[in-house]
Amino acid sequence: MELKGKYFTLNSYVFLIEGKKRGALYDLHQGVIYPLPESAKYVMSMCERHIPIKAILEEISAEEDRQMALEYMDKIEQYDFGKYRNSVDGYTKTHLNLSPWEERELMALAVELPLAPGEDKVTVSQLLDVIKEAKVSCRLSHVNVIPSVDIDSQNVHRFMSFLEKLKELQVQNIEIYLLISEPQETLFEYFVENKDSIKITMEERRITGDIKSKIVDVLLSRGVRVDSNEGLALKVGRLSPEVLKRHEVSSHIFSTGYGIFRKLRVHDVNANRLYLDKEGIVYPCIHDTGIKLGNIHDKSIRDIVYSKEVNQLWTLTKDHIEKCKDCEYRYACMNTRTFRQSLEDRTSAPANCPYDPIEGKWLNIDQSISSIKLKDVSEQNQAQLLFNESRYFRIISHQQRPFPTEYTSILDSVIDEAIQRLGINEWTQKINYYFYPSTEAMRAEINPGIDISGEMEVIHQVGKRHIYQISTVFPCHTHEILHAVFHSLNAYGNLFVKEGCATTLGFTRGSEADLNIDKVADLFKSNLVTRMLDKNGTEVKEQNNLMMIRDEIGLISGPLRHYKIVHEIAAWVLKMRNMAIDMTAVFNINQKFFTEWIYEVGGSFFLYLLDTYGTQKFCDFYKSAQSPAHFECHFGKSIHDAEIEWKNYVSQNYIN
What we know:
The chain is α/β, with parallel strands linked by helices. Helices cover 38% and strands 16% of the residues. It has 27 helices and 22 strands. An 8-stranded mixed sheet has the order 10-9-8-7-6-11-12-13, with helices on one face. The radius of gyration is 28 Å and the shape is flat. 36% of the residues are buried.
């Protein structure tokens, strides 16, 4: 057989990590982790030792296996993880400093603030003294504040007083793990005044349900950035059966990069972090209280940080952990082993890990998968996948429904048009575009039970660079592509603003045959019905076919490529609702009350703002916290006044 080169090497920034059974390629540049079956791990291991391809093939007895080895190399080259070479002279791997950090630095200290009556084993004064000492002797820069009880009207001023004292100590970063049972207006006003110096985190285990949604909505509407954190250790332990069915689970719970890879090679996940509870006891972290590291009543924080116990803890790696040391994902997995088989032993295997590295299998997986999984990269199904590539996209489809190649340039044109409209200099990364054979196959994989036509995910983050992935049944799903573009400007933001802006250039592009449009909802969401609100705000369902809407507003026929169709559909929505849309109220809407017509209204409204007020003002607003106050600051008028302008524009130009 003819060989493409004498050697095959991985790219300098791609590393092979071997597990007991399988292997994984870590692309530190793209942040991607690519799982390898046992046979591919064996082949790549020899390639990494610079064994010539011919010699590798001679090691493999069966002709079928030799052919598969070459297919592995071709596939890895196709994914841009490696390439064929005629010589390895001058080839070197990217140098990574894998020596432990020399300085004993306490990057973050979580402190439990006693707020309940009778909690006096550690006073506020003692806490502040510990933090002050840690800043001087341990280079502390980040303090997490965890209230011991719910913040209420009785203790809110004591809580805020403590935060003020932290600011006086010039703590660079203050994060609050919020525990609250009802909104506290005094506290919210304080958060707004200090939103540039305080970060709010709301953990699933500490605050849930409607109260959390209400508080998040209030804070976001006032420009306060809020993170929701359920704990990565729990996330890994609670993977749903549907997610576990995917062979490439790594895309959803693992990420990599130079910093992550180096840290997990030489340090514990919780290195340089400690937790001080209201009793004065120091633990590895807030979620791991199985090991006591000291008590501030007996030792100074400096003595604890510089103790032998903490040194052993912080320099512990997955290479020393039972089960983890046999896993190919050990340098990407952020499972903190909060739940482990022995709480007193940090080298004990995690108790909630669903992966068996000895067998190379995810546990409790239903093996009878009826639908086709595009992201399943098993050896059996790889041959059924098809790959295309354009300037901005890596396109993956299935032989059952190949991606129509004429849409490759249309996909790129959406990016070109978007970055031109938004004043983005260039788009330098590739979006993974999964084109499914049917809505049933896609929904079974990405979100069973939820009626959606597409999804954009941020699957990895490397520094400030994100890796985007789109799953869809449409050959050009403009709405999801726009989500990726706008996410690059602001990863957070108002729900209405995000969905509206992602609709400014339309939902889909292509012919009616390709989009399979027979009802109006298929035009923008591929649902069987369009959800709308009647005049009383009650949700109603109406069947509306495309012909009716064309009769109403003269909708264009044929290829749906012109973004002005967004205004036409919005005009129809306004006409059906007798212009009764309160844009200020819509700005504060949350996911629970989000309805289909908001996409069309939002797309038209923000397209009008972009065309009328220009790119600079539009993008400055999008990069802000996107509250009504920020709207008025950037556009020079209230949302209500802008709404009147927009309605007049649509009425005069698109409603007969």
